[in-house]
Amino acid sequence: MMTKAEIINQINDVTSSLIEVNLSEEQNFPAEKDGLIYISGNHDISISLRNISYADIYDILRDGKNYNVKLIDGALIQMMYSFDNEQNLKKYRLAFFPSPSLEEFQNNSELYEIDEIYADIVHKNIITTPLRFDFDPSNHEVIHHPSSHLTIGQYKNCRIPLHKPITPYIFIDFILRNFYNTARNKFSEKLSFDKTNNFDYCINDLEREILHLSIS
């Protein structure tokens, strides 16, 4: 079982590693109190669940520095866990909020056009889609609300089951591998985070029978 201390160390390591490879523009290292691992400062994450436009959600999170890491393309990363003791995970929230605006590209297009990492975000057919991994067994409902799940976009009832909770390393590897690897610069290989996952399985047998995500 992953401990609270191990999770804090992983978040710190992820943050430092993103700085080292120049993917982080701004960052807030994690804080911990009473079993809660949260973003430094007193940040309210409820804004991301309100019925307002995604652009407004993003702006409020960005302006309030409500993120662990702000990536160089403006995307925001949130990593928050809650334990009721050193080893008993209660819940977590791991979120990826890509920038909904290409204003920076419009103002400094020459910087983006020479860098392969920005090739996707400047294409007009790209749709900005936030992702969120949640672990919340206290609200588990078979199939309708899996204990561990992925939400794509802000869709209220989009909850794709996961076999088990995931670590910060696995989360960041997923983001880098799918959104930031380029033909010449594979960040997921350069950083090579340990994807060992000692959390217990939590998927229900009925949830195994529908499309779901799995990692050993």
Automatic annotation (TrEMBL):
Please give the InterPro entries that the UniProt record associates with this protein: DUF2290
Cross-referenced Pfam families: DUF2290 (PF10053)
Q: What is this protein called?
A: Uncharacterized conserved protein
